[in-house]
User: What shape does this take?
Amino acid sequence: MIDRWMNAQTADERTLAFLQNFFLLIAAVGFVFYGVEHWVIDHYMDSWQSRIPFYVSLVGAPLAVAMFFTTRKWLTIPFTAWMAVSVLTGIVGALMHLWWNAGDLGVSLFTFTGFIESMQVPYRPVLAGLAHTHVGAVGLVVGLTAWVKN
Amino acid sequence: MIPAFRAATTNTARALEIVRMVLIFLVLGGLIGYALELYIIGHWLPTFESQIPFYVTVPGVLFSAWVFFDRRTPWVRVGFIVTMWLMVLTGVLGAYYHWVWNMEDAGGVNWAFMPAMEEFHGFRPVLAALAYTNMGITGLVCVYRAR
Assistant: This one.
């Protein structure tokens, strides 16, 4: 990505490369940050589900950093695929949080009050799971436009 | 964004507008999602400070949706940029408020490293507020050189 920026010939190429580099930085920092944060807040527990976001960050961070230096096929395809995995991880994570909150409270998610109560559980925030969706979506945009020319 | 995409004559220009549209869409979704979430978790309290994220959401949603269709009209462009800067500020201010109020709940403001870090992990999430800063910066970057 850095090369794309350095070698850009037109104003549009420069602007696109700038956006790609900026959002790649957001993705890279996001993966490093969330990886560390999940570790710090003890999200790495005995259940394998609790470890998923950590592993997604662990693989995503080096892939994102490497994309700064090369956009060759062997890297861009796994990077883009992993960003799609991250998008999915966030959505599944949010749904799992919601499901487990409802289980802890003993309420049904298919009632309005049950749904709202499940959203309000402070120790398992539902929408926080979507952070991985955000980081993944940003990276996905970069990956899918990495080879655009002319 | 949409008129610029339709008028684009090169792959680069088209990709540029797609990137901008996807990311502004994320900002728009984030603004609506966070406002709903904040309302559900009871962030709307009798204090003005607790209501700031909701007030920022109104122009945020309006201008983010508007720039999809028109980013050339000067007042729309200025309104969007000012709103995005307000969001950047909202996030930073929110993080500061959360942190200070956590300290006050624990007996008083103390910026010494250990007690400050202790309250960084307090009841009010400090970093969560920076989601608004993230959205604001994203919006600003998306209109960078967008003429």
User: Anything to note?
Assistant: The radius of gyration of chain B is 18 Å.
